[in-house]
Amino acid sequence: MKTALFLLATIFVGSLVAAEPLPNVSAIERLKDAPAKALVEANCIPCHSTAIIAANHLSRAEWDATISTMQQKNGMWPLPDAIRKMILDYLEVAQRPEDRGLNQGKSTPWASPLYSPNPIWK
Questions:
Q1: Residue 18: its pLDDT value, please?
Q2: Which residues are CB-contacts of 51 (< 8 A; sequence separation ≥ 6)?
Q3: Which of 11, 36, 52, 92 has a 20 to 30 A CA-CA distance from 82?
Q4: Single pTM value for the model
Q5: Which helix (H) or strand (E) segment is 18 a member of?
Q6: Is the CB of residue 105 less than 8 Å from the CB of residue 111?
Q7: pLDDT tens by residue, 35-65
Q8: The domain at 25-99 falls in which architecture?
């Protein structure tokens, strides 16, 4: 019996070691799969994490204004029109304001502490 348990444990641990490690990325930081995701990652991640993108849900016009602001105030490089259009196409689909999951967390019993100010900071 001990030998069988040892063998099972060895096989289990061996399978964990052989498995590809999961990236250390939380669900909030994951960008949705959609065309041009790689362009968004290539042009946005050099300056900030994907968490700020995943946390925002804006209209196409608001995303466009955000890119312009980053270029004017934060030194973001110029984007060719075709690349900018593809990035905006991605953001319009993947990070739209009417995303059904956007307000879902606010309706749980645990949401109140997440959205209330910290009384110590007053």
A1: 47
A2: 26, 28, 29
A3: 52
A4: 0.62
A5: helix 2-18
A6: yes
A7: 999 999 999 999 988 888 888 889 999 999 9
A8: Orthogonal Bundle (1.10)
